[in-house]
Amino acid sequence: MSFFQKALGVTAALASVRGAYAKLDFSQRENMVVYWGQNSLGASASGGGDEQTQKPLSHYCKDENIDAIVMAFVMTINGPGGAPEYDLANISKECDTFDGTNLKNCPEVGADIAECQKNGKTILLSIGGATYNEGGFSSEKEAIAGAELIWKTFGPTKEHGSAEEPVHSAQETAPTLQPTETQKPATTAAPDPQSTAIAAGTNAPWNTWNTWNNNNWNTPNPPATQNGLWQPQATSLNNLAPQLIGRESEPASTSSQTSKVYRPFGKTSVDGFDLDFEATNSNMQPFAKRLRELMDGESDRKYYLTSAPQCPYPDAADKDFLNGPGPVDMDAVFVQFYNNPCGLSSFDANSDEQPQFNFKTWDDWAKGGSKNQDVKVLLGVPASEEASVSGFVPVSELKPIIEYAQGFDSFGGAMVWDVTQAYDNKGFLSSVRQALTQSASRMLRYAFRRSDEY
């Protein structure tokens, strides 16, 4: 793409209306995505917040600086009773759980999601986070079943798409697969050695869990431990079997058994899923691939599949579905440019090469390694010093970084961790939004000057 062609794209972006009813749009380069759900400020001992610092989702959907909100996190895919588990800190704390499961029933959150969507905001649900400890799946079949379970639980209902009714905890009768071999528990591979940071309230890696204990774990839902080590929970194939029904390729003997499809947000569906794994896991490629297939099978509206890798490339946790073999079609990556040597603080304003800050590396992946050649790379930034172990830079230093990143075709905007920290850092979101639009305008003016030379 020529520089002038880039400029035309920027012109289209600037010509569009982006206000209180803005929506995620990866054809543009000014998207603002924030994470919500972990109450990072309230969980931080030095952040000055408390348990109630995080407001309901609908509160943040009124912010004209925000295009999309990522709800964090679903930290267990196959929990007790064959149901997922999620945690939204103080927001989900008082919600009841469905009988026999650890799945919170939060219809108020569902109402907030619907209100946000009505106001034009895109709502994604992130799977993973620091406390995810299942280690993935023991087989491709289990991974596919896990994706279908997530889709049935949080995706569209039958009247709005292909996911099965009933809603909430009503029952349905379905055949159950009979296992033909002993189930092997999921195992967790070695963590990414480059992922060493852990911080209260941040989406940090788990590889320092064995140096922590539950008394000084400041984020929601510390992992189950024994002698200071986390204990993965094996999942029975019997729990997963009902979710495999309907796939013609699955050979199995069947028997009638009553199963439940739980809908914690009622009939409301999220707009897609974000994969934020902080350590290597097994069979995540077929899991992500099946999610993509389910999304693409819906014709009523667009669903998004994103990922939040750390900046070291390739990301050890996400490389199976980002790089392959058989990479999955992703709409965007929200690269965490913090807590690592390749982050924002390594940017050299006096250098065009940027030997450490590696946005160019991710742009190269977008052009040559990604299955989706139109995938967008968003600049992931912490909203305050307390939001990350390292990598926070003030907006005055962030502006030239944004301007540099906007020179790449794949640039799609900014991701902020997290919204509670951003609101405490007064003016941060509006300043980042301004930096995105001003940098785009500056690029446009420069492009037209370049075009006059030809």
TrEMBL record:
Catalysed reaction, written as an equation: Random endo-hydrolysis of N-acetyl-beta-D-glucosaminide (1->4)-beta-linkages in chitin and chitodextrins
Domain GH18: 30-439
GO cellular component: extracellular region
Protein name: chitinase
Region Disordered, residue ranges: 157-229
Comp. bias (Low complexity): 199-219
Pfam families associated with the record: Glyco_hydro_18
Family: Belongs to the glycosyl hydrolase 18 family.
Biased composition (Basic and acidic residues): 157-167
Keywords for this protein: Carbohydrate metabolism, Chitin degradation, Glycosidase, Hydrolase, Polysaccharide degradation
EC number: 3.2.1.14
Protein's GO biological process: chitin catabolic process; polysaccharide catabolic process
Polar residues compositional bias, start-end: 170-186
GO MF annotation: an example: endochitinase activity
